[in-house]
Amino acid sequence: MKPEHPRHLAEALRRRGWLLSFWPWRALVYLVSTVPIAGVLSVGLLIVGAPLLAAVNAMTLHGRRPELPLVLFLAVGSLTMLALAPIVTVPLAAVERWRLGLVDNRPLPPPPPWPGLVARYRSGSAWREVAYAFWLGGFVPIAYWVLLLLVLLDLGMVTSPWLAGAADQPVVIWRTVHGPGEAIPYAIVGVLLIPVLCYAAGLLAALQGAVARWLLTRPADAAALREVARSRTRLVSAYEAERRRIERDVHDGAQPRLTSLTLQLGLARLDVPEDSPAARPLAVAHDQARGLMVMLRQLVHGIRPQSLTDLGLAGAVRELADAATVPVTVRAEIDGELPEIVETTAYFVVSEALGNVARHAGATRAEVRLSRSGGTLVVEVSDDGQGGADPARGTGLTGLADRVAAVDGRLLLASPPGGPTRVRVELPCRP
């Protein structure tokens, strides 16, 4: 199977053939194109930063207080910079999102639309872009200068044999070289360090790209997430109310009438002679009615099991354990009443998990634990089977996880090859 192409520089750096791919050239273009942008930003920061640093040094080293004009300049300059930053960073963020494609092929979410001048200052995305601008103008130039010094040092080592033949005696690292013979070991080391510097440049570009993606990607709106959570809660509540209505209508309306119809058909079969032309159609209708009664009971049981209503969660789970094909131990430590939707979800979790044990695990025993810790119901089903449970294999775990997520719970699975398997479900118990 042909390996997939890496989608971003950090992933490409882990590949063996990175130096022979096109990624080093893309990283080089990204670094070189950063220089003018970071240079302009660093000059803007130095206009305020250099006097501030000088004033701090004067106070700490010489104990001299800054003069009033310098204080006014620093205050006005800092406030002006902060006031203009959310506006200036709009084109900067657009350019940086475009340049990020050089080292990261993953698509970015679309930038937020212009919210208006006043709303721009209240936007979290705007201040994340400002933070990126300060990072690009403050930290990045320092890292680039360090990389440049390392490159120049390596270049001096590589060219030292030719420089040693000149009239002046060059100094390589910390030692004076008196001839080409003494410089050859330095040149060899310099050649060997070229791939290391290439990887260092790639790491710097990957780090810069990761920070750009982190700060320039539009963050999720917390208010919108809260609204999604509230809407999901409303949907679950509406579903639960509709489920109870359907259960009540089927149990109190359709099921008794179907039972009566089945009895009437049974009595009619007794009154009709077996050799009558109507006997056979009547027998077929009676059998179909009885089959429909069984199907209706199963539908009602699937909506909410009757045992759950009569026995509660612990009793209904023990009934499931008694009907299981392997010995199942039930340990229930739950006090007080549980919300109906939580009870129903927990019951179907145990039912599906025990069904998976019987169908796929090859286990000799299983255990079910029900416990309540604070406002959370914890359901654990474990077995001594062969393990290797995988939701992608269609063992019902994906549907089970969806059912648990619908009530804002979570499902945890531990099933190493060879076993054992443990399914843990945590359900919040809201009153």
From TrEMBL:
List the transmembrane segments: 28-50, 70-95, 130-153, 183-207
Q: Quick check: keyword Transmembrane helix in the entry?
A: yes
Sequence ranges assigned to domain Histidine kinase/HSP90-like ATPase in this UniProt record:
341-431
Q: Which UniProt keywords apply?
A: ATP-binding, Kinase, Membrane, Nucleotide-binding, Phosphoprotein, Transferase, Transmembrane, Transmembrane helix, Two-component regulatory system
Q: What is this protein called?
A: histidine kinase
Would the keyword Cytoplasm turn up in this protein's UniProt record? no
SMART domains in alphabetical order: HATPase_c (SM00387)
What organism is the protein native to? Micromonospora vulcania
Q: What is the lineage of its organism?
A: Bacteria, Bacillati, Actinomycetota, Actinomycetes, Micromonosporales
